[in-house]
């Protein structure tokens, strides 16, 4: 398993590579636009080319983008639905341009719709996005399942994959915090194995293409998504030891989104702890608590041609 972090692209897109190297990343996640706005920013080809060259030299692989938090692919409101689909297309085109694995996206909420109605909308949005782009994957992120959130169960993810005939560019990203908050007890090796067996039976491990490794501030089954530093939350060090060493996850890139995920020191410590677990060494000491979440800078890209 490779470890990376969500890294800021502030000032220039290619500076994300420098920041990732400074904290010991082996793979990389970035935003591909403002996480809280629809507005897109176009960077120069020179900046994007420099990003590609620096990433190749740094051997940071895989690269993924996280889409805007505003996206709701199941939205009943047509304006929101179209904006959401467009934002997903934008993220995928950015990953096509930057030679990334794909875009990790939340699926949104079904609101007052029935599940079949929401499924039809999500399937339509994903189909449009896949047809409008060339290579990058869409990685659906499993949610905590609060309220009408889409993708809060393995069964819903499986139904979406079925509706799109298991498209080769459609996959899944599992988040350890989301799993735990949705009711999967991954605090032990036995719990991790049971969770992955259930995922394999329902969705298929072949569709799992990335991980988010985040501890949880909230209790098992709370349905509340609150990230914590590795080993400082309710999952604990032993849960992450089990995740890191599970043979079915060894091929994946795993990205931390811990509370100070754009600050150098907390990310470096979280990554170092995960590496020590991977190497079979005990954690040196407990991580200090992190403060608030830092601000995020926007990114945009332009396709060639």
Main attributes of the structure:
disordered C terminus, 10 strands, 305 residues, two-stranded antiparallel ribbon, alpha/beta, TIM Barrel, eight-stranded parallel β-barrel
Task: Describe what this molecule looks like in 3D.
With 305 residues, this protein is of the alpha/beta class. It has a single domain (2-278), classed as Divalent-metal-dependent TIM barrel enzymes (TIM Barrel), CATH 3.20.20.150. Helices cover 38% and strands 14% of the residues. The protein has 9 helices and 10 strands. The strands form 2 sheets. The protein has an 8-stranded parallel barrel with strand order 1-2-3-4-5-6-7-10. α2 (45-58) links the parallel β2 (27-31) and β3 (63-66). α1 packs parallel to α2 (45-58), α4 crosses α5 (154-163) and α7 (189-202) crosses α8 (236-245). The longest helix is centred in the first third of the chain and has 21 residues, at 78-98. The radius of gyration is 18 Å and the shape is globular.
Brief synopsis:
This protein is of the alpha/beta class. The chain has 9 helices and 10 strands. The protein starts with a strand and ends in a 27-residue tail after the last helix.
């Amino acid at each position: 398993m490779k470890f990376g972090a969500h890294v800021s692209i502030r000032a220039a897109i290619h500076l994300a590579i420098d920041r990732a190297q400074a904290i010991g990343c082996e793979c990389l996640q970035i935003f591909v636009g403002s996480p809280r706005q629809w507005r897109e920013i176009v960077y120069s080809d020179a900046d994007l080319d420099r990003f590609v060259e620096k990433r190749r030299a740094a051997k940071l692989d895989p690269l993924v983008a996280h889409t805007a938090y505003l996206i709701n692919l199941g939205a009943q409101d047509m304006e929101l639905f179209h904006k959401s689909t467009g934002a997903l297309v934008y993220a995928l085109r950015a990953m096509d341009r930057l030679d990334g694995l794909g875009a990790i996206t939340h699926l949104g909420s079904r609101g007052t719709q029935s599940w079949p109605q929401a499924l039809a909308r999500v399937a339509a949005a994903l189909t449009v996005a896949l047809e409008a782009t060339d290579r990058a994957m869409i990685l659906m992120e499993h949610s905590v399942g609060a309220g009408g959130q889409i993708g809060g169960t393995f069964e819903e993810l499986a139904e979406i994959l079925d509706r799109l005939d298991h498209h080769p560019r459609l996959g899944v990203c599992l988040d350890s915090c989301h799993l735990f908050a949705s009711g999967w007890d991954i605090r032990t090796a036995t719990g991790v194995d049971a969770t992955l067996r259930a995922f394999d039976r329902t969705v298929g491990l072949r569709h799992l293409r990335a991980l988010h490794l985040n501890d949880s501030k909230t209790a098992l089954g709370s349905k509340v998504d609150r990230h914590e530093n590795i080993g400082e939350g309710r999952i604990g060090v032993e849960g992450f030891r089990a995740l890191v060493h599970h043979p079915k996850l060894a091929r994946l890139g795993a990205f931390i989104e811990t509370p100070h995920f754009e600050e150098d020191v907390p990310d470096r410590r979280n990554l170092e702890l995960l590496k020590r677990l991977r190497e079979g060494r005990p954690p040196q000491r407990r991580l200090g608590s992190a403060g608030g979440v830092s601000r995020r800078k926007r990114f945009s890209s332009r396709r060639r041609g």
